[in-house]
Protein 1
Amino acid sequence: MKSMMIVALVSGFAFTLNAQSVDGKELFVKKCATCHSLTIPQDKSKMKAPPARGVMFHMREAFGSDEKIKAHILDFVMDPSREKAICKSVKRFGVMPSLKGKVSQDELSVIADWMIKNLQMNQAEHQKMQGK
Ligand code: HEC
């Protein structure tokens, strides 16, 4: 009986995680990927913003922990500014427009969790992306 409860609990938990990661990706594609491409485009001259994985490279470099990365994303997306921007590409692209009213706090929280869990880029890849 006890083991059955554990199985039910664990599979319920796995289901929740799964459902969340799907939602996070869907939301990211809808609300963010028009600017933050999920792939690294061949022709970088048409980019409107740094690719999604490049953004996360800078987030990890600047903030040690997932909690701090999440706090920055939650704040920046609603209230971006040049002073707060970590990505040096702010010089090229200008400051991101605020998404206040276009994405809810709850949606953004799911998006941030998804980004932290699923978007990685290492130093070598980042240099390659910058053409170094
Ligand atoms: C209209 C285009 C556009 C959309 C849509 C957009 N962004 Fe951005 N974003 C930018 C640009 C341009 C930058 C780079 C300049 C900067 O840092 O402000 C940026 C930078 C960022 C950064 C890095 C901030 C920093 O410290 O430099 C994060 C994190 C981010 N965006 C998250 C998101 C998320 C999450 C979404 C979707 C909810 C989103 N963006 C939607 C254009 C956009």
Note: Residues 31-32, 34-36, 48-50, 55, 73, 76-77, 80, 85-87, 89-90, 93, 95-97, 99, 103, 108, 111 surround heme C (CB under 6 Å).
Protein 2
Amino acid sequence: MVRAGRSRAGQAVAVLSLFVASLAAAATNDGASAERGYQFLTTKPYFQRDFDVPTFDSLWQVWEEPARTAAAEADAPTRRRLALERYGLMEAPGRTTGVPLQYVETSDGGWTVNCFSCHGGKVAGQVIPGLPNSHVALATLQEDLHAYLKSQGREREIGDNGMPGVPLGGSNGTTNSVIFGIALGSRRDLALNYVPNAPTPIMLHHDHDAPPWWNTKRKKMLYADGFAPKSHRALMPFLMIPQTTADKFALWEDDFKDILAYIESIPAPKYPFSIDHELAAQGAKAFQRVCAECHGTYGADGVYPERNVAIDVVGTDPLRWKALTPGNRLGHQVSWFGGKGKHQVVARPAGYVAPPLDGIWASAPYLHNGSIPTLWHLFHSTQRPIVWTRTEDGYDQTRVGIEITELGEVPASAVVPAQRRRYFDTRLPGKSAAGHEFPEQLSEEEKTAVIEYLKTL
Ligand code: HEC
Ligand code: HEC
């Protein structure tokens, strides 16, 4: 595969300086807390290992062809790189241990997954903690791991994630994570004790593209529909896998105060390519006229209205909005994670919240379901691809977003699920790229100018 962009050392330095910049930004607030938060995320294992390193490095043995032969013929470092790319993992900035950003080393030398699995990614070859991981392939990794362990007669090492029958994600870069919360929560009582035989709730599976963490500081309410008040406890539901005993939540609570401080310290990354500032200034005016009422204003006096837009007005895929019922949302409110009723949720949000657009160039693909690969496609609602597949590191500077190939169908050569997940098929449930036609109020010249302006945010 072609690797565009910078050298690895260059990437590490760039990301390290981003991280240092983020700490500097937080210094006025609570820099030490933010720094501890990043340390917890990258060095503290909250779970037992998912696998040991020799197992990870052997998974290629169960890959489909031609990937398996390519790995078999490669040297060890190349084979490791192929595995990282297959699963959407990246070398961690500034780390020399070889543990990817998305994993923490356990005391027995294995790897256990962390929040960066979905919340740390790369764009144009640059690894950025807090950037949604638009490469993550959780389902492929789990399938390969289980197939490999079975092939070795090591079935007993297959761990229990507490979510039997719940798909992890149907397209790379997105995950069924909202449903993970429901599935895990259904097996805990109010005191957070694990209840193994609790009834299985109704679950509307759908894949979601994680939001960029640098925008969390601008919000009072979390998630695509803005239903949950922001708090450190709201970040802890994924800890509910069966091995976590009830006492651990209170024990780890302070860590998550620091993790939230870290999340709120992350700056939006700057557009790394050239910008036509004159054109952007024209775009700013059109943005003010058509977009600002929902997405707010930017710069020193920027105001973010955190506006929830009714589902039939925004017109984007409604499955995520339907997947949480008022009962689910109120369940969060009364739970420990929602402060046991102290903070009010929005039980019946009208639709989705218009997110802040800081660093929007970096967080492609767009919309809550990650269905639209570039800003140009978002602005041209009749020309959005039906099926698309991305390159590993390519960045489309013309259309502003990830470099893709557009198709009418998933090719017949993509046979096994691991291959099919590399194609985003907008006709599948929860994956529609329709709606958000607001940019159509702009002339073609204005569209070009507003896209230029968005590069400056
Ligand atoms: C499997 C993928 C995945 C993992 C792992 C994950 N998240 Fe998320 N996270 C998401 C998705 C997807 C959303 C958006 C959900 C929504 O809007 O309904 C989200 C939303 C969030 C938000 C809200 C952001 C906002 O601006 O509204 C925060 C904060 C967050 N996650 C923190 C964490 C922390 C801390 C961890 C680790 C304990 C974590 N996440 C682990 C996928 C993940
Ligand atoms: C009536 C309110 C409204 C207006 C006007 C509006 N938007 Fe949006 N916008 C939304 C909502 C709501 C979403 C989230 C939709 C979703 O994820 O399904 C969104 C999403 C987006 C996204 C994707 C964000 C992401 O993180 O994926 C971009 C980019 C965007 N809008 C740009 C614009 C621009 C540029 C304009 C003006 C031409 C505009 N919007 C006008 C409500 C609006």
Note: The two ends are 31 Å apart (CA to CA).
